[in-house]
Amino acid sequence: MSTEDETTTPTNFIRNIIQADLDSAKHAAVQTRFPPEPNGYLHIGHAKSICLNFGIARDFNGKCNLRFDDTNPEKEEEEYVHAIINDVKWLGFEWSEEHYASDYFQQLYDYAVVLIKQGKAYVDSLSAEQIREYRGTLTKTGIDSPDRNRSIEENLELFAAMRAGKFEDGKYLLRAKIDMASPNINMRDPALYRIKRAHHQRTGDDWPIYPMYDYTHCISDAIENITHSLCTLEFEDHRPLYDWVLDEIKTPCHPQQIEFARLQLKYTITSKRKLNQLVTDNHVVGWDDPRMPTISGLRRRGYTPASIRDFCNRIGVTKKDSFIEVAVLENSIREDLNEHAVRMMAVLKPLKVTIENYPEGQVEELTAKNHPQKEEMGTRNISFSKTIYIERDDFLEDAPKKFFRLSVGREVRLRYAYYITCTGFVKDENGDVIELICTYDPATKGGSSPDGRKVKGTIHWVSADHAIDATVNLYDRLFTHPNPAACDDFTEHLNPESLTVLNNCKLEAALANASTDIHYQFERVGYFVKDNKTKNLSFNRTVTLRDTWAKLDKQNQ
Ligand code: ATP
Ligand code: MG
Predict the structure, then answer these.
(1) Could you list the residue range(s) of the whole structural domain that residue 439 is in?
(2) pTM of the predicted model, to two decimals?
(3) What is the DSSP secondary-structure string of 31-92?
């Protein structure tokens, strides 16, 4: 990890609490954890939690564990475990210990027996529907289940039979015995264990019962000696239950749960369940589709780990829910790539140009800088010849006065090469311009004129004989609605133009050796990275050079 972002991580209310706990010697060292459920790939929201938990461990000389919260066997898969491990590493973090909640199944079971023996848990035979009915509402207190006063002996026997696989799914629940009249519905005798005959990816068929999230999470934290258990705001109302369980079973360690606001990013979705739907319904081509807000999608799109960490620093950590503009994320990657991307020339929508007065068969090797400000990034040769390609948009038949590119009679600078002047064009039978005829001024080699003649426009180009062919994927926002998750059907708001595939793009020859871990700026066009999945050479647009949406938004105001 770069030392740059270590020194610039801004403080926040959680870091302040931790600093105070260390100052007062409440804790000798801080221990955090990142606890994903392996039911999907990590997304940009998880990056916020990862940077927070691992960043704290790093900056306070503490430790951070990676713990898989794998208590829902039907939704979880080994593939997701691998993807999560890969993504956390790629973001630049290392965990001190790797754990699985399923490793604690026996301990969790034993603690449940302790609760039963203390008269703090009971086996309930109400149906799911009855439980909902008995639970009451915010304005109506709950009603005790008839099983609430079952004897301890009977509870122990039934729970052992549940564990032994004697009952079908849903027949019984183990519930905490707390308070059916509590104003906090989470405290109205919440479920601790359910019967579910499901194969678990790690424990196989050992367990016909599985512990509930709230019960598992606090005990797992306590087992791992977590000092500060950081979670998102929706768990605020669960904190009394977190504390209740640990108080009742009297664990030596009682972590402090602290909640913070989830990351909500405009025009996208940060819920694994909904992202899963996009994948299974083929709205995207996989979890790592470059339009996905997943870490793997962002990586394939060309985001760097440093840019994502920088984004997480910029958005900060608070208790206030808010929506973050896409531009904040895009600015993080733009700044990183502006610094580090290798400059190249690529023509996405080619228009052939013949330079009439350039000698037939002649090829010149011109020198181009790999970065305009960074000498240390070196130079490369690019071939110039009689036939080149320029961007179709850089020519207009009827050009307005302020169009500083090509039109008949107008002169432009070819980047690193010569001044050329358009003298004519060729159209096909449909009336489309298919070729430009130009002349060049041999005295302007390198891009300046000895007579001091100025041209306003500089355009990029590639030599027709030397260019390589590639496909270029242009990505845009996946949704047209700023908050698709709040819509009845978020799939109705998919952006039909989220992907434009351009075939037959003409690229500078050096790009034949592109690798997926080099980031490029195609001059005047945007930032690109080689796609790591396709066989044919293709590039993904990471981000445009400027925020084109900001301009559009302004026009629409
Ligand atoms: P999802 O709805 O995407 O499944 P989750 O919260 O259920 O999200 P987990 O795998 O349980 O996903 O999350 C692991 C950790 O990441 C949790 O501590 C959770 O609070 C945190 N996290 C998940 N989404 C966000 C988010 N949008 N912003 C910040 N933290 C998040
Ligand atoms: Mg979850």
Answers:
(1) 346-460
(2) 0.95
(3) EEEE---SSS--BHHHHHHHHHHHHHHHHTT-EEEEEE----GGG--HHHHHHHHHHHHHTT
